Amino acid sequence: MQDQKLRPEHVKLMVVGESGLGKTTSIRCILHRYGESELDGMQDMTEKSKTLEIREYPPVTIQTDDPCRPIILSIIDTPGYGEHTDMRLDFTKITDHIKAQWETTYTEIQQNLTWEGSGLPSRHLVSACLYFIAPHRLKTIDIDFMREVSRLIPIIPVIAKSDTMTRDETLEFRRLVAAQL
After folding, report:
1. By C-alpha distance, which of 124, 155, 152, 153 is closest to 142?
2. Structural domains of the chain, ranges and CATH numbers in brackets
3. Measuring CA to CA, how many Å separate 5 from each of 11, 123, 177?
4. Where does the Septin-type G domain start and stop, copy by copy (predicted)?
5. Which residue, 43, 74, 80, 45, is CA-closest to 59?
6. pLDDT computed for residue 150 by the predictor
């Protein structure tokens, strides 16, 4: 039997949405599962703090059924939009960040620095965007942003605070979001 080489799968999620929807709290919940030692980069944050800059947390390793293919999960927290008068500026920072990671990867490929047997150097690339939507209302800015970013990376709409909605309201809102995209 041939020795199997460790080939981790890199997954990088970017969390985006309006201020106050619980994006950072959701990140804490996701990362909490991996123990306090994995949350060292978050100790300076209080419950009421706001994310002011795009911030990538230290990656965590998730063991899978295949011991040779663990998942290395990185999460990028972004400032909530709506704090500034021009929300397009907030979104431009996010799309510029995504494009910069593509450029870094392209440069490494050109310099032959990154090539992880799987065929794609995915260490820098954002895998998907978790886009938090306020419950009960879908704004034009949400639709515009999701359409724009979906040209760069997959978008996963997340209805924030959906526990404030009935089951029927949640299903109807999900249909509305899907129809708009």
Report:
1. 155
2. 9-180 (3.40.50.300)
3. 19, 17, 42
4. 7-181
5. 74
6. 92
